[in-house]
Automatic annotation (TrEMBL):
<feature type="binding site">
    <location>
        <position position="221"/>
    </location>
    <ligand>
        <name>substrate</name>
    </ligand>
</feature>
<keyword id="KW-0963">Cytoplasm</keyword>
<feature type="binding site">
    <location>
        <position position="206"/>
    </location>
    <ligand>
        <name>substrate</name>
    </ligand>
</feature>
<feature type="binding site">
    <location>
        <position position="105"/>
    </location>
    <ligand>
        <name>substrate</name>
    </ligand>
</feature>
<feature type="binding site">
    <location>
        <position position="170"/>
    </location>
    <ligand>
        <name>substrate</name>
    </ligand>
</feature>
<dbReference type="InterPro" id="IPR002922">
    <property type="entry name" value="Thi4_fam"/>
</dbReference>
<feature type="binding site">
    <location>
        <begin position="283"/>
        <end position="285"/>
    </location>
    <ligand>
        <name>substrate</name>
    </ligand>
</feature>
<dbReference type="GO" id="GO:0052837">
    <property type="term" value="P:thiazole biosynthetic process"/>
</dbReference>
<dbReference type="GO" id="GO:0160205">
    <property type="term" value="F:cysteine-dependent adenosine diphosphate thiazole synthase activity"/>
</dbReference>
<keyword id="KW-0808">Transferase</keyword>
<feature type="binding site">
    <location>
        <begin position="97"/>
        <end position="98"/>
    </location>
    <ligand>
        <name>substrate</name>
    </ligand>
</feature>
<keyword id="KW-0784">Thiamine biosynthesis</keyword>
<dbReference type="GO" id="GO:0009228">
    <property type="term" value="P:thiamine biosynthetic process"/>
</dbReference>
<protein>
    <recommendedName>
        <fullName>Thiamine thiazole synthase</fullName>
        <ecNumber>2.4.2.60</ecNumber>
    </recommendedName>
</protein>
<feature type="binding site">
    <location>
        <position position="273"/>
    </location>
    <ligand>
        <name>substrate</name>
    </ligand>
</feature>
<keyword id="KW-0539">Nucleus</keyword>
<dbReference type="InterPro" id="IPR027495">
    <property type="entry name" value="Sti35"/>
</dbReference>
Amino acid sequence: TLLQTSQQQAEKQEASLVASGCSSLAKAYPDYVFGEDFKFAPIRESIVARAMIKRYWKDLETYAESDIVIVGAGSAGLTCAYYIGTRRPDLKIAIIEAGVAPGGGAWLGGQLMSAMVVRKPADAFLNEIGVPYEDEGNYVVVKHAALFTSTIMARALSLPNIKLFNATAVEDLIVKEDEKGEQRIAGVVTNWTLVSLNHGTQSCMDPNTLNAHVVVSATGHDGPFGAFCVKRLAKAKLIPALGDMRCLDMNRAEDHIVKGTREIYPGLIATGMELSEVDGRNRMGATFGAMMFSGVKAAQTALSIFDE
Ligand code: AHZ
């Protein structure tokens, strides 16, 4: 039956190739012959434009009212998105990433070397998403950090309830009174990153907004864009002054980041290295287990808000 099904699929593929104008290719992949008569199915440029525009605009419209917005698609943010997306397919999750390429600092290990070290017990998360590693006792090693990052990205982005808006920066937070009269985060203010980078050179280029019940901030430690949400909260005097990230100590840093992952302001959960800036805690350098488990804890915290 499996053979029959693939034969039927091949016949269907051939028929659709012929119908779409690829008669010279009327042979199912992978038996194409890329000879002189090779040609793609014809298309008009406006069809390509419309295929992108209508989906992007529909996504903007759909996610203007999200359940959860995750700011930053580094290792912590992507882990959080994957965890919520797989456990609660009914929740709409928007990820806002300032960079064109999602993944944050997780494309390489330390000092631009390839391997990614993950301390136990966070190997359990690698098992869940199916990333292979070498077991070295107290820690495991993924042969290339990009293998983890591309896998978590594929797992998260293939879920129908997750949309990544990359090349888009969060420029501010929405803070409103809730029905009990208490102030809480109610969403984020966004702009194209290239616009955000040019506010100093053009007169006011107003932003867009996304409302959300919960915002998870995963923007990493301080940097040109880093620690964005906690810096904004501190500047607006909604949380006390930041503690600032301390020097490197792997043991202290990783435990704290996971234990300290929490709702730091009503409606806003901080995860990953952004927390080291809030709490004045150490950095860990090139060990990534805490990013994964902090992302999981942020997801569990967000889900508990929905269960309230
Ligand atoms: O582009 C940023 C990156 O991809 C994105 N980001 C920051 N500000 C943003 C904003 N709007 C939208 N205003 C924004 N996106 O957030 C992402 C943060 O990823 P990261 O890898 O820097 O943070 P992480 O906490 O997921 O992982 C930290 C990894 C580190 S740093 C470190 C050390 O320095 O010792 N050690 C580890 C394991």
